[in-house]
Amino acid sequence: MARVRVRLNQAAYRELVNGPAGPVVRQAERIGRRTVNQAKKNVKVDDGHLRTSIDHNVTVFPGRVVMRAGSPLDYGLYLHEGTGLYGPKRRVIRPLNPAKTKALRFEVKGTGRGGRGLAKGNRPVVFAKFVRGIKPDKWLVRAFRDACPYPVRER
């Protein structure tokens, strides 16, 4: 039986996989940029703070390259995962201190003259004793699935 011996150039392999200019890191950057662009299209926002906060970064660890995309704003997670009945607590949202506060207060998105949206301070105000919350909209997962050429599994 014939024997074959393969010797890898470890330095070249490390540069290929972990180097900042290596193809693996470049591909992770490419997927990250595409994910951010698609996420900015997918997310439903009122004033654009969430949209402008979406970003990505690529980190190189020994033996692996990690790309993370998302937003540091708390309400990005709430839009993604849902709240109230649709969120992890599975119950309606009520005021924290019902004895002191009788209702929740919201400024809702309204339209002004000519169908344009009203400025934040000029929007109609709504009061409610409770709200059911918002349904989850997996805007970031959908963006990653659209941007990534490889199979994506959500945990």
Please give a quick description of this structure.
Helices cover 33% and strands 14% of the residues.
Task: Describe the model.
This protein is elongated. Strand 1 and strand 2 (64-70) form a beta hairpin. The chain has 5 helices and 4 strands, in the order αααββαββα. The chain is an alpha+beta fold. It has a two-stranded antiparallel sheet with strand order 1-2. A two-stranded antiparallel sheet has the order 3-4. The chain starts with 9 loop residues before the first helix and ends in an 8-residue tail after the last helix.
SSE succession: HHHEEHEEH
Helix content: 25-40%
The count of β-strands is: 4
Q: Nearest-angstrom radius of gyration?
A: 23 Å
Provide the β-strand percentage band.
5-15%
Q: Which stretches of 5+ consecutive residues score pLDDT under 50?
A: none
Largest sheet: 2 strands, antiparallel
Helix count from the secondary structure assignment: 5
> Please, what is the average pLDDT?
87
Broad structural category: alpha+beta
Strand order of the largest sheet: 1-2
Measured between the Cα atoms of the first and last residue, the distance is: 46 Å
